[in-house]
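The step that takes the researchers longest sounds almost clerical: writing a folded protein down as plain text. The outcome of that step, for a single protein, is printed below.
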Amino acid sequence: MKKYAYNDITLLQYIFLINGMQVATGILSLPRVLAEKAGTDGWIAILIGWAFSTISGIFIVKTSARYPEDTLYDILIRLFGKIVGKALAVIYMIYFACYSCIILVNALLYLKGWLLPKTPDYIIIFLFSIPTFIVVRNGPRILGRYCELGFYMMIWVPVFFLIPLKEGGSWLPFFPLLKEGWKPVLAAVPTTIFTFLGFDIAFFLYPFLQKKQYAVHGFVIANTLTMLFYLFATLVCFAYFSPDSITEFNQPVLNLLKVIEFRFLERFDMILLAVYLIVVSTAWMPCIYCAVFCSSQLLGKQDHSSHLVVLLILIIGFIFWTHPSWNQSETWQQAISNAGLGLTYISPIILWLYSWVYEKYRQGGIH
């Protein structure tokens, strides 16, 4: 009998879980950050970031395929033994807990900046925690259904990005391509690291996937959906704003949508930001699940509900104590990006190589 049969997820849920964990608040400021680094050639950095994340993700799936019934925790114990394996699992647990906290902080700051400036920080995070507990405590299957529903609910959003282009915008600043060479573009690539983070959830999802033979295909589709969304939003922002003016807006995507007005609705950006919280929640919920899954496995518990409550209380307490600002958020985000570079991009390749050597040595020992 399969170890995780009761929590099977479909291929679509697998795709939308990976895509949902990647697409969060990073898109709102991404065009500005890319423009600061590489001007209108910044969109090329998204393609390079997509290539790197796809390669690392394939290594994740290939490593998981060697041990189809094992999650990341089980693989680490199998390859490195209990002491080292558990120590590495603790590192991943802390990483996912901090990453989910950063996403929640960003969502909080956007919500306070645009919709609820007078509401206390901890109240907003507490309200976020209620649906988070309800969804996450039920495991990957419910998480997958939630992410799939969230994707279908928000699939109409990109259409509205095209409305401002009717009134203005030009594609001329894009040409000639690579105006200042490859150096600025390559300098902008690290900024895409944070926006593509999250695909390492494939380590946790693989044992639950029903059709494991399509795991690589599903991952590539999920990562490509993320890339297309980022690329589309960035190109539209670059076309609408001039190369100089886009750097003056902290969140050019929201400023772009602020232009949209209907006879029956003026502040469309407010409505979209409120609805976009569904998309952001599909990032922090799976991330919190990965953190509490690691902690429950470390303590040998099957039910992670109590761990989930503790983590949410810790996050609320952290927000209450620190009252985070935009500058603090950017500092923490940079730290998580640096950690993600090692844990999400580099370690899967090392883990795959180590597992290959381990299997060769084990088979040699048997014979």
